[in-house]
Every structure is written in C-alpha cells, then in structure tokens.
Amino acid sequence: MQRAVIRLFDHWGVTDAQAATLLGDIAVRTYQRWKQGEYGRWNVDLAARLSNLIGIHKALRLLYTEAERGYRWIKAPNRAFGDRSALDVMLGGHLTDLMRVRRYLDSYRGAW
After folding, report:
1. Antitoxin Xre-like helix-turn-helix domain: which residues (predicted)?
2. Which end of the chain lies in a sparser environment, N or C, as judged by fewer CB atoms within 10 Å?
3. What is the pTM of this model?
4. Phi first, then psi: what are they for 85, rounded to 5°?
5. 91-94 contacts: CB < 8 A, separation 24 or more?
C-alpha cells in the first residue's frame, strides 16, 4: 500500500511535506525514504490513513472514467467543503479529515 500511495501522491501533485501530513505527521525525511523503497513499520493510525487514501482513489476512479479528472478533483474547490479542495480538508492532519473526504465520495457514489 505504501508504494501505491506514493504513486497516488505523485498523480495528485502532493509535495513531500503535504504527504508527511497526510500520513500522520511522519517526518518528511521518512516519506522521502519511502520513495526510495525503504519502508518502515506501520501502526494502526498509518494503516487507517493508507486505507482511507486508497479508498478515496478507488471512489474517484469509479466516479470518473477519465483518471486525470479524478486526480484534478482533489485540488478543485468544492462547495461541500466550504469551497475548499478535498486536499485542503485532508491537510487538516487528522485521520477524521481523510475519513470525511472518503465518506463524501462514498455517499456521492451511493446516490447514483
């Protein structure tokens, strides 16, 4: 999952500092080591974050047949988030911020 999230962050255009925040305020250097293939141990919080990030990606792939539209959606202003982007919401740093975006996408998908 770590490799998948690294690729996902690349598609989203996430900086190393933003990635570290999304992953639970890990050290930027730790994330940079991940990108070099040096993966560390997981804790429950990190596992939940990785799962939610992959869930967000999956929901966007189901909503948008064109992958690039889903990647762009992450940074686009959204009325559901007070005209903030999903990325801005997730950068709040709490696991619940990731869960909020995932629940929004899952509920939007369920409305179809």
Report:
1. 3-54
2. C
3. 0.92
4. -80, 165
5. 91/18, 91/21, 91/22, 93/21, 93/24, 93/25
Q: Please determine, for residue 12, whether its predicted confidence score (pLDDT) is greater than 80.
A: yes
Count the domains in the chain.
Answer: 1
Give the domain extent around 103. 2-110
Query: Rounded to whole angstroms, what are the CA distances from 48 to 7, 22, 27, 42, 97?
Result: 18, 11, 18, 10, 12
Report the alpha-carbon angle 93-103-12, nearest 5. 55
CA dihedral over 87, 89, 94, 98, signed as positive or negative: negative
Model confidence at 111: pLDDT above 60: no
The span from the CA of 3 to the CA of 61, in Å, is 18
